[in-house]
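tokens incoming
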């Protein structure tokens, strides 16, 4: 797998992290479980990275409990992240994630009948 080194290094840096899938270009995505047994979804596209943490079985955007977002000016938008890029971006967002309540304005409004 192209990102084996990134997966191994993230497992070392964040004990208990489980990465179920990783890869792609435009967007690059990774999914798995956090050390506290929630799900995560990581996405990178056009120089913008997002990390959602949400309960098992929930929708990553609608029911996220933690969230972080970051942009770079490093040329990552080229669409071909290497393992070092993945490690740097994921770890940066992991360290700065915050409770989703701080981002409530981003959620879709509830449908009324």
């Amino acid at each position: 797998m192209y990102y084996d080194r990134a997966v191994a290094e993230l497992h070392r840096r964040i004990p208990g992290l489980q990465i179920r899938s990783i890869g792609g270009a435009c967007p690059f995505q990774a999914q798995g479980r956090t050390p506290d047994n929630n799900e995560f979804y990581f996405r990178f596209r056009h120089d913008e990275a997002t990390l959602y943490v949400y309960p098992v079985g929930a929708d990553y955007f609608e029911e996220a409990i933690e969230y972080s977002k970051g942009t770079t000016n490093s040329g990552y938008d080229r669409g071909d992240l290497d393992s070092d890029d993945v490690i740097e971006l994921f770890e940066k967002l992991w360290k700065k994630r915050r409770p989703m309540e701080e981002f409530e304005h981003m959620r879709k409004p509830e449908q009324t009948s």
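note: The mean pLDDT is 81.
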